[in-house]
TrEMBL record:
This is Glycine--tRNA ligase. Keywords: Aminoacyl-tRNA synthetase, ATP-binding, Cytoplasm, Ligase, Nucleotide-binding, Protein biosynthesis. The gene is glyQS. It catalyses: tRNA(Gly) + glycine + ATP = glycyl-tRNA(Gly) + AMP + diphosphate. One of its GO terms (biological process) is diadenosine tetraphosphate biosynthetic process. Its EC number is 6.1.1.14. It comes from the Bacteria. It comes from Salinivirga cyanobacteriivorans. ATP binds at residues 249-251, 259-264, 331-332, 375-378. Homodimer.
Amino acid sequence: MSQEDTFKKIISHAKEYGFIFQSSEIYDGLSAVYDYGQLGAELKNNIKSYWWKSMVMLHENIVGIDSAIFMHPTVWKASGHVDAFNDPLIDNKDSKKRYRADVLIEDYIQKLEGKIDKEIKKARKKFGDDFDEGKFRETNPRVLSNQKKVDDVRHRFKTALDNDDLAEVKQIIVDAEIACPISGSKSWTDVRQFNLMFDTKLGSVNEGASTIYLRPETAQGIFVNYLNVQKSGRMNLPFGIAQIGKAFRNEIVARQFIFRMREFEQMEMQYFIQPGKEEEWFANWKEKRMKWHKALGYDDTLLRFHDHEKLAHYATAATDIEFNFPFGFKELEGVHSRTDFDLSKHQEFSGKKIQYYDNERQESYVPYVVETSIGLDRMFLAVLSAAYKEETIEKENGKSDQRVVMALPPAIAPIQLAVLPLTKKDGLPDKARAIIRELKYEFNCHYEEKDSIGRRYRRQDAIGTPYAITVDHETLENNTVTLRDRDTMEQKRIDIDKIPEILREKVSLNSLLKKLDE
């Protein structure tokens, strides 16, 4: 099954089982805006909880805030968003469709890299254990040719962006013979910049209203509250401020399901440090953030670092943690060394002194910042992508069966335990509900009695429930139930009294958080 087919199945599965719906679907939907369904809301909240507790609960020098979406318009002047928060756009003259020029170029590079990967896979299959990938990359003519194209385009594109040369960006598209995905036409307009911020009016009447913006990121809410938090919390450097919140970007080319949307949620932490220690803390947070992802049990092939070649003018270092989505490796989280740019700009534009008095050094200075920023929706998509599996199950009679299973990390699964009475009679439903009444204060439980027990198991597999217990007639006799494991499908008999202990060990968020301190 191709990666494109897998992605389509994940999207379909997400809707069918109540994870994600198209926003305003009964009115034919709103492009690039999505609603989280009953299971999606639970999973999303569990991801938030994992991030928040790992940041705020596990670090005594990191605190959380919740800043407003609306902010004074000068905030966005100071941050540079009003003047420079732009995307390079290009129109196809025949299809009349508008595209982000950088995305067209990135897709072109990705296709070339796909050709290289295809050659490597063919060679690996042909030569087996004797295959030397490094040597193959250095000697194979087709690989060398495609790699040269990749390197040339990347160099030209980086230079064009550094020089703000939009004519050169268009020329790259022309020279690479990039065609419109809709019409196949190569007739393009000039590239121009488009500001991504949504604006609205604040005031009781239009004539006297002032223009304000929906925030395009959550970080500025942290920076403008630096003094409030530092003074009220009596915080000493180094310390961090964390926030989870909605942000809005008027994406012209929103695509790939919830990967790029117009309304999205961010989980960001700004870590304020002494100037000169940014390299040390950048490396520290880079390692911590990768460990946070890998604690969920992901295979090493799904995650990688991608260091930025082009740095923002104020940055000393930047890296992305990339995830191997069904459409390739893409940015999941960013770790950035931002120096004192943001606080200094807000100090300049506000006229307020935003500094830290260092008792040890006996001086005041504007702190430097190391940022970690992850898109919650992208993290949600990464979790879904890694979890979706189609399995063939061999039966004792020689026949086989198919199941779709969402192998979600148990600690963040929307439902942690399904309680299933074998039948709808003989007091089994009453016993099942009594079990839920005892467990519901600690675990998210789900009761289901419709259909055969086999069908119910399959449904729980499809929504990612890690454990299910079946209440049968033996339960009424000896107070035991059958515990079924989602991943292994193993079933074993246990005492009802043992259920809380087993669940705490298997699905507790605390167990997951403890991995981060190992």
